[in-house]
Amino acid sequence: MEHTIVKVENLSHRYASQWAVRDINFEISSQGVVGLLGSNGAGKSTTMNIICGVLKQSKGEVFINGVNLKENPVAAKRNIGFMPQKLPLYLDFTVEEYLTYCAELRMVEKTQVKKAVADALERCGVAHFRERLLRNLSGGYQQRVGIAQAIVHNPKFVVLDEPTNGLDPNQIVEVRNLIKQIALDRAVLLSTHILTEVQATCREIKMIEEGQMVFSGSLEMFDNYIEPNTLVVTLDTPPVSDALMSVEGIRSVEQIAPFRYRLGYDGEKKTPQRFAAASVSQDWGLMELIIEKSSLDEVFARLSKKNNK
Ligand SMILES: Nc1ncnc2c1ncn2[C@@H]1O[C@H](COP(=O)(O)OP(=O)(O)OP(=O)(O)O)[C@@H](O)[C@H]1O
After folding, report:
1. Are residues 67 and 93 in the same domain?
2. Which pLDDT tens digit goes with each residue over 252-302?
3. 214 and 277, same structural domain?
4. Nucleotide-binding: is it a keyword of this entry (predicted)?
5. Is the shortest distance between the CB of 42 and ligand 1 below 6 Å?
6. Whose CA is nearest to atom 12 of ligand 1?
7. Do 75 and 204 share a domain, yes or no?
8. Cβ(79) to ligand 1 under 6 A?
């Protein structure tokens, strides 16, 4: 059963005199990928560094699996895995030596290290490269090892900072699949600038702007954040525009192709249904009716205060 694995309460952080994060509250549940979005300088890294225990917050509390990170950092960190943007790889180590070193750093019990390393190698699809030097792996495989070091101690919560940065399209698909797979039995917080990545991997989104949380909800809610209130219809035997306007709730008509129209409407749920009924009763030959959605980029721009200035 799902439960809360990360709880952030009234989190604020100040560098010298400037507040980078102001009064952020959120929870993350125990499974699935949560996307952390925000423009440059929004406060994502600051937030991630605090919830990974790398940076101590000025105010507020972070609980990992119920353990207060500030008060019990060692116990809380047993359940945190972190893959920073710049991978902390020692290039002269073999994959297996490196993961063994990471397991020891993460205080995996001595008798369990071998098994923990074998599991991480297997899960991240790098077992066949266990004896290869890290410097001789491709970018995609180095990224897999980066993910393996984040899960080697089997934490309940993993933070990945821009994990597909610099990869080629095939490697991107593979790493995204791996992320989805490791999120089947743990929570993953994924920071990215790439909105298609969010669409491909995340079920929930948190967006930070100017240090404050401006959105927290499902991918679907994010998708529907701006209702463009337009329909696109294809009519085989269209009437004159005035007739289309006569349907209650239709506010504008724009012809975009010979049989295709974009109709502005009042946003009422019933209006598209009313339009479909009118098309049938008046024999306009309705072939297609699409309620248009905003793109993720438009939603991002709307939520980003900077872009609205
Ligand atoms: N060590 C620091 N000292 C002073 N100010 C900092 C420091 N680190 C970050 N800041 C400032 O805090 C704010 C938030 O920065 P942060 O790095 O958390 O944003 P970000 O969303 O991760 O941005 P990016 O996507 O560019 O990495 C910015 O205004 C940044 O300039």
Report:
1. yes
2. 999 999 999 999 998 888 999 999 999 999 999 999 999 887 777 778 888
3. no
4. yes
5. yes
6. 20
7. yes
8. no
For residue 288, the CA-to-ligand 1 centroid distance in Å is 47
Please state the domain count of the chain. 2
Q: Ligand 1: distance of its center to the CA of 162 in Å?
A: 15
Among 223, 257, 275, the domain-final residue is: 223
Tell me which residue has its CA closest to atom 28 in ligand 1: 41
CA of 2 to the centre of ligand 1 (A): 32
Question: Is residue 303 included in any domain, yes or no?
Answer: no
Q: Which amino acid is it at 16?
A: A
Distance 308 CA to ligand 1 centre (A): 20
Instruction: Please report, for the domain that includes residue 267, its CATH number.
Output: 3.30.70
Model pLDDT for residues 95-112, shown as the tens digit of each residue: 999 999 999 999 999 999
- The atom number, within ligand 1, closest to the CA of 85 reads 27
Using alpha carbons only, give the angle 66, 35, 187 rounded to the nearest 5 degrees: 35
pLDDT on residue 307: 46
For residue 217, the domain's CATH number is 3.40.50.300
What is the interface pTM, i.e. ipTM, of the complex?
0.96
- What is the atom index within ligand 1 of the atom nearest the CA of 193? 25
Distance 228 CA to ligand 1 centre (A): 33
Task: Please give the order of strands across the beta sheet that includes 260-265.
Answer: 250-257, 260-265, 230-235, 286-291
At 167, phi and psi to the nearest 5? -95, 160
Q: Looking at the structure, do residues 194 and 64 belong to the same domain, yes or no?
A: yes
d(CA 144, CA 20): 31
Task: Tell me the residue range of the domain where 17 lies.
Answer: 4-223
